[in-house]
Structure to design on (392 residues):
C-alpha cells in the first residue's frame, strides 16, 4: 500500500476513535463540564481527520479549517462556560438532571437512582480526657446574644 | 467474513464492554476489568493499522495515538471532573503530537497553546468556582452507560470498516486522486517555509473567512459578558432566586 494512503488511513481511524469516545462521553456523562469536555474531544478527532486529508490532497485547506475549528472552539468555550455558570447559580449543581423539568410534556419525570452508601471510613474515636480545671462560667440566656465580650 | 473483519468485530465487542465497565455506574465494580478489556481492544484495533512504513515513524505514531485515545477514554470515564480535565489535557498533547507527525506544525502548536493553554485553564477555573470539592453525586452515575458505550464503539467500528473500504486499492468509490509523491509534498504542505505558506493562504485566499472568525470571536466575547451580567443584574434587583 502507498505510504501516503496508509498514513491517511491511520490518521482517519484515530480521528474516528476520538470522535466516538467523545460522543460516548457527551451522551452518558451528567456533569455539564464533562459533557463539554467530551465535545472538545470530538472536535479534536475531526481536526485530526482534516489535517490528514489536507496532507493527502497536498493542500493547505485542511489546516486552515483546523485553525477555524480552534477559533470556533474558543468562542464556544466562552459562551458555554458563561451559560454553565449561569445554570450553576440557579441550581447550585452542575448536574444536567437538575434541569429535567425542561422535558416534553408527555415525558415522565426523571427520578434519580439513589447512590449506594459509600463504605464509611473508619473514624478514629476522639480521645477521652479526664476532667481537669474549673467549670467555665456561663451566662444562661445571655450566652445567646452576648451583651459584652 | 475475512480475518480482518473478525478481529475488528472482536475489538468492537471488547471495547464496548470495557467502556461500559469503565463508565461510572453508581459505585458498581469492574473498573479494572474494563480497563484491561479496553486495552486489549485497543491493541486488536491497532493491529489493523497499516503503519507509516518506517519503524521510527511507526513507533511515534502508535505511542502518540495510544496516548490520545487512552487519555480521551480517561477523560470520559473519570469520576472526578478535575481528573477529566487533566486527562483531556494529556489527550490534547497526544493529538498535537500526531498533528506534528502529519507535518502540520502550526496547527500542533496552536492546539497546545489555545486548547491546553487557554480553554483547559478556563475549564478548571469554572470547575473550581462551581464544584471546588471535586466529586459530586452526579459524577458517580451515567445515563445509560451500556447503550451509549455500545453505540459509540459500534460507530467507531463502522467508521473503521468504511475508511478501510474506501481507501482500499480495489474500491470503485475511491476518488481518482493519485496520492502525492514526496517531491510534491515537499513543495506543498511539507514545505520548509510551511508556516509562511499557511499564513499566505490564510491572509490571501481565506481573508474574508479570517475576518469573519475575528468577528465571531468578538461576538462571543460580548455574548459571554452579556449572559453573565444579565444574571448578576437580576440577582441585585432582589428578585427571588429560583432554587
Amino acid at each position: 500500500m502507498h505510504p501516503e494512503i496508509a498514513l491517511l488511513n491511520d490518521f482517519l481511524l484515530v480521528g474516528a476513535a476520538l470522535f466516538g469516545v467523545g460522543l460516548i462521553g457527551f451522551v452518558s456523562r451528567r456533569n455539564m463540564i464533562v459533557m463539554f469536555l467530551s465535545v472538545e474531544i470530538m472536535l479534536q478527532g475531526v481536526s485530526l481527520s482534516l489535517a490528514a486529508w489536507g496532507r493527502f490532497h497536498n493542500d493547505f485547506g485542511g489546516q486552515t479549517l483546523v485553525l477555524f475549528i480552534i477559533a470556533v472552539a474558543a468562542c464556544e468555550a466562552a459562551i458555554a462556560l458563561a451559560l454553565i455558570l449561569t445554570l450553576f447559580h440557579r441550581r447550585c449543581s452542575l448536574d444536567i438532571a437538575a434541569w429535567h423539568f425542561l422535558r416534553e410534556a408527555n415525558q415522565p419525570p426523571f427520578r434519580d437512582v439513589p447512590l449506594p452508601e459509600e463504605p464509611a471510613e473508619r473514624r478514629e474515636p476522639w480521645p477521652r480526657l479526664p476532667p481537669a480545671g474549673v467549670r467555665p462560667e456561663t451566662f444562661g440566656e445571655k450566652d445567646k446574644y452576648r451583651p459584652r465580650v | 467474513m475475512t480475518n480482518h473483519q473478525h478481529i475488528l468485530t472482536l475489538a468492537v465487542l471488547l471495547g464496548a464492554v470495557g467502556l461500559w465497565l469503565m463508565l461510572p455506574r453508581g459505585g458498581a465494580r469492574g473498573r479494572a476489568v474494563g480497563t484491561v478489556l479496553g486495552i486489549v481492544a485497543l491493541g486488536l484495533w491497532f493491529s489493523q493499522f497499516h503503519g507509516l512504513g518506517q519503524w521510527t515513524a511507526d513507533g511515534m505514531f502508535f505511542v502518540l495515538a495510544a496516548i490520545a485515545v487512552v487519555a480521551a477514554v480517561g477523560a470520559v470515564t473519570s469520576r472526578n471532573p478535575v481528573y477529566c480535565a487533566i486527562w483531556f489535557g494529556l489527550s490534547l498533547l497526544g493529538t498535537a503530537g500526531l498533528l506534528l507527525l502529519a507535518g502540520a506544525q502550526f496547527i500542533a502548536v496552536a492546539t497546545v497553546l489555545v486548547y491546553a493553554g487557554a480553554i483547559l485553564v478556563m475549564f478548571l477555573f469554572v470547575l473550581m468556582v462551581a464544584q471546588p470539592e471535586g466529586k459530586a453525586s452526579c459524577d458517580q452515575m451515567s445515563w445509560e452507560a451500556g447503550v451509549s458505550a455500545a453505540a459509540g464503539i459500534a460507530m467507531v467500528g463502522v467508521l473503521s470498516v468504511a475508511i478501510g473500504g474506501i481507501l482500499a486499492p480495489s474500491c470503485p468509490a475511491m476518488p481518482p486522486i493519485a496520492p502525492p509523491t514526496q517531491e510534491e509534498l515537499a513543495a506543498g504542505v511539507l514545505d520548509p517555509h510551511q508556516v509562511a505558506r499557511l499564513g499566505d493562504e490564510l491572509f490571501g485566499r481565506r481573508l474574508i473567512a479570517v475576518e469573519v472568525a475575528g468577528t465571531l470571536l468578538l461576538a462571543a466575547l460580548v455574548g459571554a459578558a452579556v449572559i453573565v451580567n444579565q444574571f448578576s443584574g437580576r440577582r441585585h434587583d432582589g428578585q427571588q432566586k429560583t432554587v
